[in-house]
Amino acid sequence: MKQMNGYIGRIFTIDLSSGEKDIIALDDQMIRKYLGGRGFASHWLYENLPANVPPLSEKNLLIFASGPCNGTIVPSSSRGSIGAKSPLTSILGSGNTGSSFSVQLKRAGFDMLVISGKAQRPVCLVIEDGDATAVPCEDLWGKTVSEATGTLRARFGYRNVSIGCIGPAGERMVPISTVIFDKFRGAGRGGLGAVMGSKNLKALVVKGSKGINAAHPDRLKKEVLRFIQILEEEPYYERYSKAGTAVIAEPMNKMGSALVKNGTLGFFEDIEGVNEKALKQHLFVRQKACFSCPMPCTQQYGVTKGPYKGTYGEGSSGASVVMGFGPRCGVSDMRAIAKAHTLTNELGLDLISTNAVLAFGMECFEKGLINTSSTGGVRLEFGNAEAQLEMIEDIAFREGFGRVLGEGTKRASDTIGGHSERFAPQVKGMDMMEVEPRGMPSWGLMFAVSSRGADHVRAYDVCQMMSFSDEVLIRIAGTIEVREMFGPKGKGRSVAFFENVRAVADAMEICRFVTRGKLGFPENLVGMLNYVTGLAFTAEEMYSIGERIVNVERLFNLREGMKASDDTLPHRYLSESLPDGAAKGKRVPLKEMLEEYYMARDWDMASGYPKSQKLDFLGLSADRVRRNLG
Ligand code: SF4
Fold first, then answer.
1. Which of 231, 316, 510 to mutate to test the pocket of ligand 1 (most atoms within 8 A of CB)?
2. Alpha-carbon span 426 to 570, nearest angstrom
3. 177 lines ligand 1 (CB under 6 A)
């Protein structure tokens, strides 16, 4: 296989049922059209996974993909992508992690792993020196994430080794389980931990020894220094470096964009219990960066006093943790929130889905739709941190009422009934994160249209948060009115724009927190990409790659039966006004934003399909798409 820059040039496939392995040469066209990481994973699933495969069957493909920048000096390029058909949503399941997994995967000899089949007994897949072997590991089945990771590290080493594993939740195929990398970094929303469990695959161990070539190392170094200089001047750099995304808890509450008590309120009275000051006061906190990142937005935390003493953890989802287990569930005890986070991680659950189902369950309890007979005696009330912890265990072990909540808020609402689907915080079966869409409508649109169901990071639209100039806003959204928080104008275009540029960063495998502002625009990334790969991409071409990735994910979902009418939000956000806070009286003006979004995408409003001219422009052959869709 030919020597490449930025890529290894090899894709490894393994069928765990038969043990059959193959190494496929990475195709130049795939690089040119999808770049890497999320682009590779989504493209591969679209091309190789037949429609209507049951997500927990042997036929589902589980993919781990790296990007061209992993293992180079490009800042914040530790990210890696995971993809499969989701058992939670039955559409695309995918995630992105900040561990060193992708870097070590490349150093071990592969750009991408594609896993099918099911091992007869629990195994871990050891990837090393251009090969991968399924090694029996019955002794690890049943272990928590830290136990399994610790044992595997002792067995396979510490230096240049990365581990992705599932906890008890993934083993039991809980639809809101995830994969945890290097003990603390979760990825794989939509139950990809369950997909791993369905394959009897407890863990992946990657051991790297190869170097990654860059085509023009000297020019790359200069470009990297320029990138870091711009980053250090960005307003978010210092704030995130000091306290991570948890710093936004208080501002979000003031703006009316925090989801409080599952969306029954628009303002959290006890915010002082969960703000930045409380974080520093009640938890031992140390900022930490992911591998190769100059902006340490993640945190190591520990509890040194009180009933949760000894709790320790690490994570990059400050806001999702603090606001999710906190105000969303009516909890204002930072130490209890830390405990909930650690437990969720240890058991291998997706933290956003977990706090979403807990908050939803609490509202059902308070409304009398469930009671202690349903919950096995647990008083699942807002603010009850102990109930939260009990229920997290029940979800992971599929016990008691945890069996219902572990199915995610959509299926849980189907079971609970009583019109609870109106306030179940989900889209297309995916549980929403802790932002109140009525307080931040562009995020409501993001939730409605994202390719993995209610999701905020696919677009991560920052037009109302960043101080972009008029000129930049016109380029993004066609109007400066997009700056206005509540009006619908420009939001469709801006969400489409950001979906495209975020897809490029995900394909390069650069973190979207670092690239959240102007650094995420293709013209600020293209130099590094070209100096790594030696290929002559243009910024316009990169933007089209992002657009192609979004469209191929759309096609995958349409083939699985998704409809245009699924691009919506739950009844609460469209039809019930927020009762208090800065966004009091607001609802999400989804219809107007959605129309503009479809126009920007060149998708048909009635069917939801990309129009033929768009498919042709992206080289996605409209004829073939029609045949695929039947
Ligand atoms: S910005 Fe934060 S999440 Fe992103 S790579 Fe750096 S430390 Fe990790």
1. 316
2. 7
3. no
Residue of minimum CA distance from atom 2 in ligand 1:
297
239 burial (CB, 10 Å; 0-12 / 13-18 / 19+) is: middle
76 lines ligand 1 (CB under 6 A): yes
CA atoms within 13 A on the CB side of 562: 27
Q: Write down the domain spans for the chain.
A: 10-207, 243-417, 437-629
Q: Provide CB contacts within 8 A for 277, sequence distance 6+.
A: none
Report field, pTM of the whole predicted structure over 0.85: yes
| Architecture of the CATH domain 437-629 | Orthogonal Bundle (1.10)
Beta carbons within 10 angstroms of residue 515's beta carbon = 25
For residue range 91-136, list pLDDT tens digits in order: 999 999 888 999 999 999 999 999 999 999 999 999 998 999 999 9
Tokens of 389: 């912890």
State the maximum Cα–Cα separation within the chain, in Å, rounded to a whole number. 67
CATH of domain 10-207: 3.60.9.10
The pairing of beta strand 131-136 with beta strand 185-187? unpaired
Q: What is the pLDDT of residues 209-252, one digit of tens each?
A: 988 999 999 999 999 999 999 999 998 898 888 878 777 888 99
**What is the number of the ligand 1 atom nearest to the C-alpha of 292?**
5
According to CATH, what is the number of the domain 243-417?
A: 1.10.569.10
CA distances, 428 to each of 35, 111, 562, 588 (Å): 27, 31, 8, 18
